[in-house]
Protein backbone atom coordinates (compact mmCIF):
# COMPACT_ATOMS: atom_id res chain seq x y z
CA UNK A 1 0.00 0.00 0.00
CA UNK A 2 1.04 3.58 -0.47
CA UNK A 3 1.89 4.09 3.18
CA UNK A 4 4.93 1.88 2.63
CA UNK A 5 6.04 3.31 -0.71
CA UNK A 6 6.22 6.69 -2.40
CA UNK A 7 3.12 6.56 -4.56
CA UNK A 8 1.53 9.20 -6.79
CA UNK A 9 -2.18 9.73 -6.36
CA UNK A 10 -4.22 8.90 -9.43
CA UNK A 11 -6.61 11.66 -10.41
CA UNK A 12 -9.51 9.18 -10.63
CA UNK A 13 -8.77 7.62 -7.25
CA UNK A 14 -8.38 10.26 -4.57
CA UNK A 15 -7.66 8.25 -1.42
CA UNK A 16 -5.26 8.95 1.45
CA UNK A 17 -3.77 5.47 1.03
CA UNK A 18 -3.67 4.08 -2.48
CA UNK A 19 -1.90 1.82 -4.99
CA UNK A 20 0.71 2.25 -7.71
CA UNK A 21 -2.23 2.08 -10.13
CA UNK A 22 -5.90 2.98 -10.35
CA UNK A 23 -7.83 -0.02 -8.92
CA UNK A 24 -11.20 1.44 -9.92
CA UNK A 25 -10.83 0.60 -13.61
CA UNK A 26 -10.35 -3.14 -14.07
CA UNK A 27 -10.52 -2.86 -17.89
CA UNK A 28 -7.04 -1.29 -17.85
CA UNK A 29 -5.48 -4.25 -16.01
CA UNK A 30 -3.24 -6.69 -17.92
CA UNK A 31 -4.92 -10.03 -18.65
CA UNK A 32 -3.08 -11.93 -15.90
CA UNK A 33 -3.91 -9.53 -13.06
CA UNK A 34 -7.48 -10.57 -12.23
CA UNK A 35 -6.78 -14.37 -12.24
CA UNK A 36 -3.71 -13.82 -10.04
CA UNK A 37 -5.68 -11.59 -7.68
CA UNK A 38 -8.39 -14.25 -7.42
CA UNK A 39 -5.70 -16.86 -6.64
CA UNK A 40 -4.26 -14.65 -3.88
CA UNK A 41 -7.75 -14.16 -2.44
CA UNK A 42 -8.27 -17.94 -2.47
CA UNK A 43 -4.94 -18.51 -0.68
CA UNK A 44 -5.93 -16.08 2.05
CA UNK A 45 -9.39 -17.62 2.39
CA UNK A 46 -7.84 -21.07 2.87
CA UNK A 47 -5.08 -20.01 5.28
CA UNK A 48 -7.01 -17.53 7.45
CA UNK A 49 -9.02 -20.10 9.52
CA UNK A 50 -6.02 -22.33 10.40
CA UNK A 51 -4.00 -19.20 11.24
CA UNK A 52 -6.64 -18.18 13.75
CA UNK A 53 -7.07 -21.73 15.07
CA UNK A 54 -3.44 -22.65 15.70
CA UNK A 55 -2.60 -19.29 17.27
CA UNK A 56 -5.68 -19.56 19.46
CA UNK A 57 -4.59 -23.04 20.56
CA UNK A 58 -1.10 -21.76 21.46
CA UNK A 59 -2.54 -18.87 23.50
CA UNK A 60 -5.03 -21.19 25.20
CA UNK A 61 -2.30 -23.72 26.01
CA UNK A 62 -0.06 -21.11 27.65
CA UNK A 63 -2.74 -19.26 29.59
CA UNK A 64 -4.48 -22.43 30.80
CA UNK A 65 -1.33 -23.94 32.29
CA UNK A 66 -0.06 -22.07 35.36
CA UNK A 67 3.47 -23.42 34.92
CA UNK A 68 3.63 -22.28 31.29
CA UNK A 69 2.21 -18.81 31.85
CA UNK A 70 4.56 -18.23 34.79
CA UNK A 71 7.50 -18.58 32.38
CA UNK A 72 8.37 -15.24 30.77
CA UNK A 73 9.45 -16.83 27.50
CA UNK A 74 6.18 -18.73 27.00
CA UNK A 75 4.13 -15.69 27.97
CA UNK A 76 5.84 -13.49 25.38
CA UNK A 77 5.29 -16.13 22.69
CA UNK A 78 1.60 -16.19 23.64
CA UNK A 79 1.54 -12.41 23.06
CA UNK A 80 3.29 -12.94 19.72
CA UNK A 81 0.58 -15.48 18.87
CA UNK A 82 -2.02 -12.82 19.68
CA UNK A 83 -0.64 -10.48 17.01
CA UNK A 84 -0.53 -13.39 14.55
CA UNK A 85 -4.12 -14.31 15.47
CA UNK A 86 -5.24 -10.74 14.68
CA UNK A 87 -3.65 -11.04 11.26
CA UNK A 88 -5.70 -14.16 10.51
CA UNK A 89 -8.84 -12.73 12.12
CA UNK A 90 -8.76 -9.16 10.76
CA UNK A 91 -5.99 -8.48 8.23
CA UNK A 92 -6.51 -11.47 5.93
CA UNK A 93 -10.33 -11.08 5.74
CA UNK A 94 -9.83 -7.39 4.88
CA UNK A 95 -7.35 -8.41 2.15
CA UNK A 96 -9.92 -10.87 0.79
CA UNK A 97 -12.65 -8.23 0.86
CA UNK A 98 -10.36 -5.73 -0.87
CA UNK A 99 -9.38 -8.25 -3.56
CA UNK A 100 -13.00 -9.14 -4.25
CA UNK A 101 -13.95 -5.45 -4.27
CA UNK A 102 -11.30 -4.64 -6.88
CA UNK A 103 -12.35 -7.63 -9.01
CA UNK A 104 -16.07 -6.76 -9.04
CA UNK A 105 -15.43 -2.97 -8.95
CA UNK A 106 -17.46 -2.19 -5.83
CA UNK A 107 -17.68 1.35 -4.43
CA UNK A 108 -15.76 0.72 -1.19
CA UNK A 109 -12.24 0.29 -2.56
CA UNK A 110 -10.83 3.36 -0.80
CA UNK A 111 -12.36 2.45 2.58
CA UNK A 112 -11.17 -1.17 2.37
CA UNK A 113 -7.70 -0.07 1.24
CA UNK A 114 -7.34 2.21 4.24
CA UNK A 115 -8.76 -0.37 6.68
CA UNK A 116 -6.41 -3.07 5.37
CA UNK A 117 -3.33 -0.83 5.37
CA UNK A 118 -3.92 0.47 8.92
CA UNK A 119 -4.68 -2.98 10.39
CA UNK A 120 -1.72 -4.60 8.61
CA UNK A 121 0.74 -1.94 9.75
CA UNK A 122 -0.51 -2.17 13.33
CA UNK A 123 -0.38 -5.97 13.49
CA UNK A 124 3.03 -6.27 11.83
CA UNK A 125 4.34 -3.46 14.02
CA UNK A 126 3.12 -5.33 17.11
CA UNK A 127 4.76 -8.50 15.82
CA UNK A 128 8.09 -6.71 15.30
CA UNK A 129 8.22 -5.09 18.75
CA UNK A 130 7.14 -8.36 20.43
CA UNK A 131 9.94 -10.22 18.64
CA UNK A 132 12.31 -7.52 19.88
CA UNK A 133 11.13 -8.07 23.47
CA UNK A 134 11.50 -11.85 23.32
CA UNK A 135 14.94 -11.42 21.68
CA UNK A 136 16.00 -9.12 24.51
CA UNK A 137 14.58 -11.58 27.08
CA UNK A 138 16.65 -14.41 25.61
CA UNK A 139 19.74 -12.19 25.43
CA UNK A 140 19.51 -11.32 29.12
CA UNK A 141 18.87 -14.96 30.06
CA UNK A 142 21.88 -16.27 28.10
CA UNK A 143 24.35 -13.40 28.41
CA UNK A 144 23.35 -11.75 31.73
CA UNK A 145 21.81 -14.55 33.83
CA UNK A 146 22.34 -12.85 37.21
CA UNK A 147 20.64 -9.67 36.07
CA UNK A 148 17.87 -11.71 34.41
CA UNK A 149 16.95 -13.70 37.53
CA UNK A 150 17.14 -10.59 39.71
CA UNK A 151 15.25 -8.13 37.51
CA UNK A 152 13.22 -9.78 34.72
CA UNK A 153 9.68 -10.79 35.64
CA UNK A 154 6.55 -11.65 33.69
CA UNK A 155 4.87 -8.50 34.97
CA UNK A 156 7.65 -6.26 33.68
CA UNK A 157 7.57 -7.98 30.30
CA UNK A 158 3.80 -7.46 30.10
CA UNK A 159 4.27 -3.76 30.89
CA UNK A 160 7.03 -3.48 28.27
CA UNK A 161 4.78 -5.15 25.70
CA UNK A 162 1.86 -2.83 26.50
CA UNK A 163 4.11 0.25 26.19
CA UNK A 164 5.64 -0.84 22.87
CA UNK A 165 2.26 -1.81 21.41
CA UNK A 166 0.97 1.63 22.41
CA UNK A 167 3.98 3.27 20.72
CA UNK A 168 3.17 1.44 17.49
CA UNK A 169 -0.42 2.67 17.71
CA UNK A 170 0.67 6.25 18.39
CA UNK A 171 3.14 6.13 15.49
CA UNK A 172 0.26 5.28 13.18
CA UNK A 173 -1.77 8.21 14.55
CA UNK A 174 1.15 10.58 13.97
CA UNK A 175 1.56 9.20 10.43
CA UNK A 176 -2.05 10.19 9.73
CA UNK A 177 -1.44 13.67 11.21
CA UNK A 178 1.56 14.06 8.87
CA UNK A 179 -0.41 12.73 5.87
CA UNK A 180 0.13 15.92 3.85
CA UNK A 181 3.87 16.07 4.54
CA UNK A 182 6.68 14.63 2.44
CA UNK A 183 7.09 10.86 2.07
CA UNK A 184 10.00 10.49 4.53
CA UNK A 185 8.31 12.78 7.06
CA UNK A 186 5.24 10.53 6.97
CA UNK A 187 7.41 7.46 7.50
CA UNK A 188 9.40 8.96 10.40
CA UNK A 189 7.10 7.83 13.28
CA UNK A 190 7.05 4.22 12.04
CA UNK A 191 10.81 4.24 11.38
CA UNK A 192 11.49 5.45 14.92
CA UNK A 193 9.28 2.66 16.27
CA UNK A 194 10.26 -0.23 14.01
CA UNK A 195 13.92 0.65 13.38
CA UNK A 196 15.11 0.00 16.97
CA UNK A 197 13.13 -3.26 16.99
CA UNK A 198 15.03 -4.62 14.00
CA UNK A 199 18.38 -3.52 15.49
CA UNK A 200 17.56 -5.26 18.80
CA UNK A 201 16.40 -8.43 17.06
CA UNK A 202 19.48 -8.64 14.82
CA UNK A 203 21.98 -7.99 17.63
CA UNK A 204 20.37 -10.19 20.29
CA UNK A 205 19.56 -13.17 18.04
CA UNK A 206 23.04 -13.19 16.48
CA UNK A 207 24.75 -12.99 19.88
CA UNK A 208 22.62 -15.55 21.74
CA UNK A 209 22.57 -18.01 18.85
CA UNK A 210 26.35 -18.26 18.84
CA UNK A 211 26.52 -18.50 22.63
CA UNK A 212 23.73 -21.10 22.88
CA UNK A 213 25.26 -23.35 20.20
CA UNK A 214 28.69 -23.18 21.85
CA UNK A 215 27.38 -23.94 25.34
CA UNK A 216 25.13 -26.75 24.10
CA UNK A 217 28.14 -28.48 22.53
CA UNK A 218 30.05 -28.08 25.83
CA UNK A 219 27.20 -29.57 27.88
CA UNK A 220 26.69 -32.50 25.50
CA UNK A 221 30.41 -33.29 25.64
CA UNK A 222 30.22 -33.54 29.43
CA UNK A 223 28.20 -35.80 31.69
CA UNK A 224 24.76 -34.23 31.82
CA UNK A 225 23.26 -33.34 35.17
CA UNK A 226 19.66 -32.34 35.80
CA UNK A 227 20.68 -28.68 35.86
CA UNK A 228 22.53 -29.05 32.55
CA UNK A 229 19.50 -30.68 30.95
CA UNK A 230 17.48 -27.65 32.05
CA UNK A 231 20.03 -25.39 30.36
CA UNK A 232 19.76 -27.39 27.13
CA UNK A 233 15.99 -26.87 27.21
CA UNK A 234 16.49 -23.11 27.55
CA UNK A 235 19.03 -23.10 24.71
CA UNK A 236 16.55 -24.97 22.49
CA UNK A 237 14.07 -22.21 23.22
CA UNK A 238 16.69 -19.74 22.04
CA UNK A 239 17.20 -21.68 18.81
CA UNK A 240 13.42 -21.69 18.33
CA UNK A 241 13.48 -17.89 18.47
CA UNK A 242 16.16 -17.97 15.79
CA UNK A 243 13.91 -20.05 13.53
CA UNK A 244 11.02 -17.61 14.02
CA UNK A 245 13.28 -14.67 13.13
CA UNK A 246 14.59 -16.58 10.10
CA UNK A 247 11.01 -17.22 8.95
CA UNK A 248 10.33 -13.49 9.32
CA UNK A 249 13.35 -12.65 7.18
CA UNK A 250 12.25 -15.15 4.51
CA UNK A 251 8.76 -13.62 4.46
CA UNK A 252 10.21 -10.11 4.17
CA UNK A 253 12.59 -11.03 1.32
CA UNK A 254 9.89 -10.89 -1.41
CA UNK A 255 9.11 -7.29 -0.40
CA UNK A 256 12.76 -6.27 -0.65
CA UNK A 257 13.28 -8.13 -3.93
CA UNK A 258 10.12 -6.76 -5.54
CA UNK A 259 10.92 -3.22 -4.37
CA UNK A 260 14.44 -3.45 -5.82
CA UNK A 261 13.17 -4.90 -9.10
CA UNK A 262 10.49 -2.22 -9.28
CA UNK A 263 13.10 0.49 -8.69
CA UNK A 264 15.48 -0.68 -11.44
CA UNK A 265 12.97 -1.79 -14.09
CA UNK A 266 12.67 0.80 -16.82
CA UNK A 267 9.28 -0.55 -17.95
CA UNK A 268 7.69 -0.50 -14.48
CA UNK A 269 4.37 0.77 -15.79
CA UNK A 270 4.23 -1.43 -18.92
CA UNK A 271 3.98 -4.94 -17.47
CA UNK A 272 2.13 -7.00 -14.87
CA UNK A 273 4.72 -6.38 -12.14
CA UNK A 274 3.23 -3.02 -11.19
CA UNK A 275 -0.18 -4.59 -10.59
CA UNK A 276 0.81 -7.88 -8.95
CA UNK A 277 3.75 -7.08 -6.67
CA UNK A 278 1.83 -5.67 -3.69
CA UNK A 279 -0.72 -8.49 -3.55
CA UNK A 280 2.04 -11.10 -3.75
CA UNK A 281 4.29 -9.80 -1.02
CA UNK A 282 1.47 -9.01 1.38
CA UNK A 283 0.16 -12.56 0.93
CA UNK A 284 3.64 -13.90 1.68
CA UNK A 285 3.75 -11.77 4.83
CA UNK A 286 0.38 -13.18 5.91
CA UNK A 287 1.89 -16.67 5.75
CA UNK A 288 4.31 -15.76 8.55
CA UNK A 289 1.39 -15.73 11.00
CA UNK A 290 0.73 -19.43 10.42
CA UNK A 291 4.42 -20.37 10.19
CA UNK A 292 5.33 -18.85 13.59
CA UNK A 293 2.97 -20.95 15.78
CA UNK A 294 3.82 -24.08 13.80
CA UNK A 295 7.52 -23.54 14.53
CA UNK A 296 7.18 -23.21 18.29
CA UNK A 297 4.46 -25.85 18.47
CA UNK A 298 6.92 -28.35 17.00
CA UNK A 299 10.03 -27.05 18.76
CA UNK A 300 8.68 -26.45 22.29
CA UNK A 301 7.56 -29.71 23.86
CA UNK A 302 5.28 -28.15 26.51
CA UNK A 303 3.34 -26.13 23.95
CA UNK A 304 3.34 -29.02 21.47
CA UNK A 305 1.81 -31.44 23.97
CA UNK A 306 -0.78 -28.86 25.08
CA UNK A 307 -1.88 -28.10 21.51
CA UNK A 308 -1.95 -31.81 20.66
CA UNK A 309 -4.09 -32.63 23.70
CA UNK A 310 -6.60 -29.91 22.84
CA UNK A 311 -6.89 -31.10 19.24
CA UNK A 312 -7.34 -34.73 20.36
CA UNK A 313 -9.95 -33.68 22.93
CA UNK A 314 -11.86 -31.79 20.25
CA UNK A 315 -11.97 -34.77 17.88
CA UNK A 316 -12.96 -37.16 20.69
CA UNK A 317 -15.78 -34.79 21.63
UniProtKB/TrEMBL annotation:
It is found in: Cell membrane. Signal peptide: none annotated. Residues 54-296 form the G-protein coupled receptors family 1 profile domain. Pfam families: 7tm_1. This is Adenosine receptor A1-like. Keywords: Cell membrane, G-protein coupled receptor, Membrane, Receptor, Transducer, Transmembrane, Transmembrane helix. Its main location: membrane. GO terms for molecular function: G protein-coupled receptor activity. The lineage of its organism: Eukaryota, Metazoa, Cnidaria, Anthozoa, Hexacorallia. The keyword Transmembrane helix applies. The chain crosses the membrane at residues 37-63, 75-95, 115-136, 157-178, 190-210, 239-260, 280-298. Belongs to the G-protein coupled receptor 1 family. InterPro entries: GPCR_Rhodpsn, GPCR_Rhodpsn_7TM, TAAR. One of its GO terms (cellular component) is plasma membrane. The keyword Cell wall biogenesis/degradation does not apply.
